[in-house]
Amino acid sequence: MLDRKKIARHLKTTLFGRNLFLLEEIDSTNKYAMQLARDGVPEGTVVCAAFQTAGRGRFERNWYASPGENLLISVIVRPKQNIELVQRITLAVSVILLESTRDFLKKYGYEPLDMRLKWPNDLMVGSKKLAGILTESLLKGKAVEALVIGIGINLNFQRDNMPQEIRDTATSIRIETGKHVDVSRFFTHFLYDFEQAYERLERTDYADVAEHWKKYNQQLGQDILIRTMQGEERGRFMDVNAEGHLIYEDEAGNRKELLAGEIING
Ligand code: BTN
Q1: What's the pTM?
Q2: How high is the pLDDT of residue 228?
């Protein structure tokens, strides 16, 4: 459960979450945050909900969570970047989420988990999804006016509470470690790490993001099934370039670059 007092006591950030919308129920924190971004709220504004009635995933999928059990947040940032760099930012956020989760588990005496990143930004344990990120942008021409970075991480989701649709493909920290996670604690821990990393990334122009991301990926060099805006395609995963795009070889041996899409298998 989200505990406002606990959050106030433990939040160590200077900017992130200082303007905080803590909601019991909302359709989607991303949708709410996009409206706030249009209204001009400051960088670091955070929307966090105990429950979403219409949580959004990538490719217009639904994002599910049981009330009060998982972390559902949207962070508004105003990076000094053009739209071309947005993919790098979302890759960076998945690295931050993995490392922050790893450190949280260690700090609070959980078993370590073998977490991996799946292109572009799914956080996986084995072949199951632990967290997803949906980034939406508010643009002025090519310049980014605001980014809403929406993160859903399954903390205490139990298999019995999962809709059939995701029961075989999703997991949670609770399922993997057998231990309950304090949602408010996880929230303050993650937000602090996110703020620290974000400041560094903005200062260093996201220079090492792709290299850092690749450390946590296991599919490089393997055969993959890709979903693009045009449909599905088979290929071999060759690289992630500095812009965060997927480089693959199609079945005819042509080298291709994919900007937006996802890997279906693995
Ligand atoms: C995906 O893997 O498809 C992305 C899932 C993103 C879900 C989060 S939950 C909080 C925020 N609000 C939303 O409606 N979606 C994101």
Answers
A1: 0.96
A2: 87
